[in-house]
Amino acid sequence: IPLFADHDVGLVYGNCWLYNKKNLLKKRKIFSKKKLSKGMITKSILNDYKVGWLTVMIRKSYLNSTKNVFDTNYDLIADFDFAVKFSLKYKFDCIQEPIAIYRRHENQLQRIYFKKQIEQFETWFLKIKSHSYLRSHDSICSIKNKIEYMKIINLIYEKKYFKSLEKIFQYPLNINKFKLILILLLPDLILRYFRDYT
Which of 35, 46, 111, 190 is the most exposed place for a label (fewest CB within 10 A)? Predict the structure, then answer.
């Protein structure tokens, strides 16, 4: 495979389509409108995780030499945990065009166990802060913001509007803060769209 010609490349991934047939506003959406990152991309993964796992290919020699590829303590975020750790040692390469379709539905584990996913991110964040390199990485605060973002989303889903509004005001000023305000104010039909593609 041409992209593995560089022996420093350990993983190749590509863009994909997100598809939800029940979404009335937009059934299909591109996973990443921005150009996908390649090379040593730890910073990119921490800032904006865009590795679609249905598109991933990993160098066989790594799989043959590794017993436990994924940390089973993180059943809902094992892919993210792997991508961060793998990116510290290996280059990533990518295909910018969509090469797969990811079908979203109500029975996905990340949707059913959304609160558990938040808890796993919190555990991961506390553990990773002991990592000699990652704890000093300037992008590690992005994960803290992501966790807080997910917590506010969950408060809105639970209809704890005053508490969510308080948390939104405390949230850093960036595009996600405006998204949270929209999610809080918009009706359920529009909210469902944001939930599908958050």
Answer: 35
